């Protein structure tokens, strides 16, 4: 790879179901955030290769009581990001509630509260289109069989141009069951180009499928279809679901995800052109590219979404999300550096997967070493805090206060089928209630835990292989908790969170 080329994936972590839009010289991207908060991440780039995280469009999930506990496979599914009438718009489907919309005058907000555009079960992957030629507005969405009993079809609506309501009951505009060999058609993105309505939509399942294109002279069809991106002889399985964007100089590019197990859905950038027959050609004649010439855009310094954090003033960076809507007082601001997490009392202290008060960020897609320093500021017996890798299975290492007041280094894990954690190594004394914690993450998301309680880093327990959380990639997490009971249970302070390439 040279300065004139880029290598995929361009976002090597779980930025699931990406969509992209250009406004002037700036590109913006959002992605699924499921049940984590804040939701709807907002990324910015000037060259389509280097991206930074600039904020979130959704402060809390609604209704709040539904997301007071982890619902990692619910919430925000497959958002669409558009710019219209000098406003940014994001539409998404909550599979249990319906189609929502938020909008803002600037990418950093202020964003409106979620507006329920269409209520119903199984309504997912919505995408709007404002037809600049006619002034009409449209919406297309897919279906989740788990909630509706329906899948493999796309439904279209006319929409009020102000984005507040749909103007009809909807019509199936693409029925995947009528297309030989197609299944699990979903994730539509709607465009106008060259006198056609275009829908770019994947099918065939996220791990094994392909990217399709559909076109029609009228929004409600009939549509022709073609497969425009598939694995072929590459190692990019199921190139799947994304968005088309055009640069100021007229180049076309397509961003999509690839499912990579514990690493989640990483984002690739494919060149795109329009063939002589008027159909889009993605990648290398329909195969994903690994290395390619960069977009014809002004050179930019290397950048990526932040990971490291010193927690100035007790504040955590944009890269962190709670596993549910946050409670009051979970993180306390103060005058120094370091994240002060309250040891939240819970009857579920034996299972991190059930806790809303785990502060998480995405697991990097490349081998790395994760470190953080911990001080347990609690005298409550059973109070504990640590560094975790969280998925259907989880493992964590940290400190726990014993019944006699001493602090111990503990390392625990739970398999995906287990209802409670158990020890991954024998506890050992941590006399000052402090520890440096480390997870070395190698190929295949294999994690080696170690800790330094004053006598240097010592390995702890066997290798733990991270797993996804259903279709959400594994997460790194910081947590402080205590057994159920009454009264304040103290806190834990985390400092110098670092992720370094291995």
Automatic annotation (TrEMBL):
Residues 309-499 form the Beta-xylosidase C-terminal Concanavalin A-like domain. GO terms for molecular function: hydrolase activity. It comes from the Bacteria. InterPro entries: ConA-like_dom_sf, GH43_C2, Glyco_hydro_43, Glyco_hydro_beta-prop_sf, Glycosyl_Hydrlase_43. The keyword Cell cycle does not apply. SUPFAM superfamilies: Arabinanase/levansucrase/invertase, Concanavalin A-like lectins/glucanases. Pfam families: GH43_C2, Glyco_hydro_43. Keywords: Glycosidase, Hydrolase. Gene3D superfamilies: 2.60.120.200, Glycosyl hydrolase domain, family 43 (2.115.10.20). The keyword Hydrolase applies. Belongs to the glycosyl hydrolase 43 family. This is Glycoside hydrolase 43 family protein. It comes from Streptomyces venetus.
């Amino acid at each position: 790879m040279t300065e004139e080329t880029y290598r995929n994936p361009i976002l090597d972590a779980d930025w699931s179901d990406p969509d992209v839009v250009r406004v002037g010289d700036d590109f913006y991207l959002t992605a699924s955030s499921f049940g984590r908060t804040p939701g709807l991440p907002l990324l910015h780039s000037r060259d389509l290769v280097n991206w930074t995280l600039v904020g979130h469009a959704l402060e809390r999930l609604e209704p709040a009581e539904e997301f007071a506990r982890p619902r990692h496979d619910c919430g925000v599914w497959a958002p669409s990001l558009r710019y219209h009438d000098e406003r940014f718009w994001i539409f998404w489907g909550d599979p249990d509630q319906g189609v929502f919309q938020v909008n803002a005058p600037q990418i950093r907000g202020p964003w409106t509260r979620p507006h329920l555009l269409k209520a119903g079960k199984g309504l997912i992957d919505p995408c709007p289109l404002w037809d600049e030629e006619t002034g009409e507005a449209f919406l297309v969405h897919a279906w989740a069989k788990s909630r509706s009993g329906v899948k493999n079809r796309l439904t279209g609506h006319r929409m009020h141009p102000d984005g507040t309501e749909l103007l009809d009951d909807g019509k199936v505009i693409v029925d995947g069951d009528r297309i030989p060999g197609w299944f699990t058609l979903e994730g539509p993105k709607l465009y106008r180009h060259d006198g056609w309505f275009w829908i770019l939509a994947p099918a065939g399942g996220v791990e094994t499928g392909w990217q399709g294109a559909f076109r029609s002279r009228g929004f409600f069809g009939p549509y022709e279809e073609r497969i425009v991106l598939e694995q072929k002889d590459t190692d990019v399985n199921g190139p799947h679901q994304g968005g088309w964007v055009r640069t100021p100089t007229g180049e076309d590019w397509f961003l999509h995800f690839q499912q990579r197990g514990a690493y989640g859905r990483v984002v690739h950038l494919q060149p795109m052109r329009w063939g002589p027959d008027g159909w889009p050609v993605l990648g290398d004649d329909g195969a994903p590219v690994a290395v390619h010439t960069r977009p014809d855009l002004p050179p930019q310094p290397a950048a990526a979404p932040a990971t490291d954090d010193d927690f100035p003033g007790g504040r955590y960076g944009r890269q962190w999300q709670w596993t549910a809507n946050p409670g009051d007082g979970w993180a306390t601001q103060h005058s120094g550096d370091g994240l002060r997490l309250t040891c939240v009392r819970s009857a579920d202290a034996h299972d991190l997967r059930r806790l809303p008060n785990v502060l998480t960020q995405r697991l990097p897609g490349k081998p790395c070493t994760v470190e953080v320093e911990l001080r347990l500021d609690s005298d409550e017996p059973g109070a504990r805090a640590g560094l975790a890798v969280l998925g259907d299975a989880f493992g964590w290492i940290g400190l726990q206060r014993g019944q006699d007041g001493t602090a111990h280094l503990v390392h625990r894990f739970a398999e995906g089928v287990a209802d409670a954690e158990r020890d991954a190594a024998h506890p050992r004394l941590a006399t000052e209630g402090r520890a440096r914690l480390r997870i070395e993450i190698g190929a295949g998301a294999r994690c080696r835990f170690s800790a330094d309680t004053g006598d240097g880093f010592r390995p702890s327990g066997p290798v733990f292989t991270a797993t996804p959380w259903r279709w959400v990639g594994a997460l790194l997490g910081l947590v402080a908790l205590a057994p159920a009971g009454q009264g304040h249970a103290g806190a834990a302070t985390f400092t110098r969170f670092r992720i370094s390439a291995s």
